[in-house]
Every structure is written in structure tokens, then in C-alpha cells.
Amino acid sequence: MGSTVCGFLKQNNIIFLRFFTILVLSCIPDGTNLCSNPSFDTPTIPPHSSSSSIPSSLKTLTLDGYFSFENLKHAAKDFGNICHYLPIAVLHPKSVSDISSTIKHILYMSSVTKLTVAARGRGHSLQGQAQAYQGVVINMESLDRPSMYIENGEVPYVDVSGSELWINILHETLKYGLSPKSWTDYLHLTVGGTLSNAGISGQAFRHGPQIDNVYQLEVVTGRGEVVTCSDKENADLFYGVLGGLGQFGIITRARISLGPAEKMVKWIKVLYSEFSTFSNDQEHLISSNNSFDYIEGFVMINRTGLLNNWRSSFNPKDPIQASQFSSDGKILYCLEMVKYFNPEKIDVLNQDIEKLLSELNYIPSTLFLSEVSYVEFLDRVHLSEIKLRSKGLWEVPHPWLNLLIPKSRILDFAEGVFGNIVKDNNNGPILIYPVNKAKWNNRTSMVTPDEDIIYLVAFLSSALPGTDGLEHIMTQNQHILDFCAKAQLGAKQYLPHYHTQDEWQAHFGTQWETFVQRKSAYDPLAILAPGQRIFQKAISIT
Ligand code: FAD
């Protein structure tokens, strides 16, 4: 069977060109919202003509791992808990060759089936991006993970499986006094999942997102080929895959850049009542030398009593003044800063922090400080996860909206949205912080507004059970998007989600042509990551 498939692939480069034409023509064709019904959806286009023969055909493959064909509901679920598409099978690969063989087999079967393949990392997608309706979901976590290789030389790095969790990488690299430089706020995500998007957190202003901190990848393309790629070797595939929404290949290994790790962090929060003062200070900090190591921020609308919550883990610099502080019902903006440090050098640290804080214009009585370990800080969201899980609130729908807004329009955005479209943030945090794009590599597939400084604005809402929360939040999200479009803010979605080809094309803008060319080169039948709904599986004409 293996040699037949190889022969098929070699002979058919011409056919691939024909597939390309079909691929472009068959980008998601209309405005149907496939996720509008939060139950197990059935898209209108049948994925393949002879579904009963598919499981038996997959069973003929010789694998190190195995397929399961029953009890697949978990593969139709993600953190968003809004879209649910049942696959026909889940592959539990043990080896990279299991993934390659499966993709090659599906290519071979392409004249009789529209079967697609979705890699599933931790399934923390929001809108079904790691799902495949009646296709094959690859449970990446079952891939055998060789122990991580850490190069501790002049240019330190770690080699990890694409299915590795960032939290495990943190623990392993710390044994060598090293750690990755760029993070996400939550570390129980896979390398393959975050590198398919970007991986943005409060370190990205200095180091770029996670996709800019990778030296090399091993990828199984949509042709089933296993390819090593880097800036020097197969660079087009390398940059295509980084931020490529899983469209060009499945990441099976990544070489991630490391830097020295400190033991502790000083964690500081201060408040502002004027958005422009807050954002000026944020922009000042991300442009300063010897600044903080992490800079984020969030918005508090109608959130009285929040300062009291902080007191459990943060100490006010001036307890009396802090206890007298009142927001008078105003919207507040919290600047959150962290400096990493070695406890032996605490004096130098305190001087540095004093100097940095003296350059800011926050409300003096609202300075709160805390000291925690580096690991505790980086793994902070996991604590919230444990609490929410214990109350059954982790599994609720998460209609999140993440936007990138150019600096030149952030004041218009804040004025139009905070307090006007969004009247409270009782459904979840609203993060807002700028990043310095000069530090970012513009060769990846990731799309950003075209300015040197851009803001990430993340509406991280949860729809609580027994309320009309989901509908309300989704309507509110749409109002925010409509506002951005009407005011021509030049905003881009992060972790994007669209329904039509026109929307995807507008999202990618001048990068669309390259994206389509890469798709035709590396996944000509549009087998991979169908849950992103960018391309539709091509039909083989033989
Ligand atoms: P999945 O949901 O499993 O997959 C995501 C996409 O990648 C799918 O299209 C899938 O097919 C594809 N994919 C998965 N594995 C691979 C692979 N090995 N190769 C190729 N494609 C693959 N993001 C940030 O940038 N910053 C944050 O601070 C941040 N915080 C978060 C906090 C929480 C609580 C959650 C739930 C998410 C957060 N995210 C953040 C978003 C997160 O980065 C993405 O949802 C990411 O895709 C999740 O990784 P995953 O392993 O669960 O991916």
C-alpha cells in the first residue's frame, strides 16, 4: 500500500496544479455561519460519498498507534464550547510516520472522499478550529515524545515535540537555568497549537510572539511529506507554518530559543482613570531601555471592590490611602508590570523599579506589589483554571474576541467601545496592551495591522449557565467588530474566525496571495485544519 501511494504522489504533480484551481475556487463559498447552532452541527456539504467504506479503509493502515471510531464526542469539543463537529475517526499516533501515512492514505483516497484532517493539540481553540466534520482528528497528545533535548551553549535552545505543553518545557528548561523568552498567559497549551497562531503575552513587546522565537521545525505537510525547515532550509514552509493556522503542515517538532531564567518576579499593578494617560505610560514602558520584563494591562468597567480582591495576593504600597481609594463609578485601567530578578540582587532591582515607576503617571494610592516565583507567575492562569473547574465554570462557552488595533486608532477604539458598547466586564477580563512590532518578524503567516506599535485587546468572556450570556456576548462582540469596520480602525482579529472567503481575503490583505500559493504548494487538496474554514477540501479529478 505504501509504495502505491508514493507512486500516486510522484505521478500527479500535474493533477495537483488542477487541484490548485479547484482549491482557490472552493474557498468557503457563502456566509453560512456553521457555528451558529451550539449543538452538534451538520454542515450542508457532505464530506464524502461513501462514508461507510472510510473506517475500513483507514483500518488497513499499518500504524504504531491506532484509530478509534467510537465515542468521539471529545474531539468535537473545544475550550470555546460553541462549535461541535463530530469526526469520523480519531487517530492516536505514536510516531510521526503514523501522521504521514494517514495523510498520504487520505490523498490516495481523494477521488472517492472529501475526508479532511485536523491536528488537535489541547483543543483550546474557540470556534472549532481543531475539529474536522466527519474527518480525521489527530490527537497530538498521544504522539510519543522523546525527552527534550536542551542545548546549553552560546545560543541555547530546546528541541521539543509539537505536542509538548509549554508548562513542561518551562519545568525542564529551568533545570538548566534557562527558559523560553516569549510566552502565552496560560501554559497548558501545545507548542503546535500556539505556533499555528502566534503566542502573544506580556513579553512580546521585547521578544516578539512565540512564532518569532523558533529556530527550526519538523512538519508533516498536506502531501504527507516529513520536512525539516528553518530560516535557512525550506524557509517558505517554515514561515508559512508559523502563524499559518495549521494550513500547511502539522508541526511534529520545534526548536525553541531559550534565555537565562531568573528565580523570582516582582509583580506590580497600578491604576489609571484616564485611558490616554494609561496608554501613554504603556507605550513609554515598551519603548524604554532596561524596562520591565512583562507589560500588560486590563480594563475594569463597573468593577467595584476589585482592589479588595487584590489584597489577598498583593500589598498596597500605602495601605491607608489604598483603602480610601474610590473609583467614583469611573472606568479604570490597570497597568500590570513584572520584573524578573535574582534574590541576591534585590537592592539593584528595587532601585530600577523605583526609577521606572517614577516616570509613570498612575493614581499614587493605587500602587500594589507582590513577589512570587518565576514559575508561579508564568503558570498563574492555571490557578484560576483549578478554581473554575471546581465550580464547573471552566467548561462553559467562551465567546472570546481578540483584536489587534493600530496605535494611531487606540484612543478611538477605547472611546467607542469601553463604557459605550461594553458597559461592564462582569463576564470576564478585558486585556489591553501594546507591543513593539519592530521586534516582530514580518515573514510569518501572522497578520497584524501595519504600524510599529499595535495593541492586543482581548475580551475573554465566559457565558455563564442558565443566562442569555452567550447570545448577549456574541451580539456585543459583533457590535465591536462593526464599530471597528465602520470607523475604519484597521483592526485585525487575532485567533481569527470568519465565515466567508471575502472576510478571509480582507483579513490577509496583501498576504492573501502568498497564503493561497503556500496552500497549493503544501496542502494542494486542502486536507488540513478544515475547522479554520479558510479553504474547502478539493475534489480530485482523475
Ligand atoms: P488546538 O486548539 O488544539 O489547535 C489550534 C489550531 O492549531 C487548530 O487549527 C489545530 O488544527 C492546529 N494545530 C494543533 N496542533 C497543531 C500542530 N502540532 N501542528 C499544526 N497545527 C496544529 N494565546 C495567546 O497567544 N496568548 C495567550 O495569552 C493565550 N492565553 C490563552 C489562555 C487560555 C485559558 C486559552 C484557552 C487559550 C489561550 N490562548 C492564548 C489561545 C491559544 O494560544 C490557542 O487557542 C492555541 O491554539 C491553543 O493551543 P492548543 O494546543 O489547545 O491548540
UniProtKB/TrEMBL annotation:
Q: Name one GO biological process term.
A: cytokinin metabolic process
Name any cofactors this protein relies on: FAD
Keyword Transit peptide (UniProt): no
Q: Which reaction does it catalyse?
A: N(6)-dimethylallyladenine + A + H2O = 3-methyl-2-butenal + adenine + AH2
Q: What keywords would UniProt list here?
A: FAD, Flavoprotein, Oxidoreductase, Signal
Spell out the Gene3D superfamilies in the cross-references.
3.30.465.10, FAD-linked oxidases, C-terminal domain, Uridine Diphospho-n-acetylenolpyruvylglucosamine Reductase, domain 2
Q: Please state which protein family the record places this protein in.
A: Belongs to the oxygen-dependent FAD-linked oxidoreductase family.
Would you tell me the protein name for this molecule? cytokinin dehydrogenase
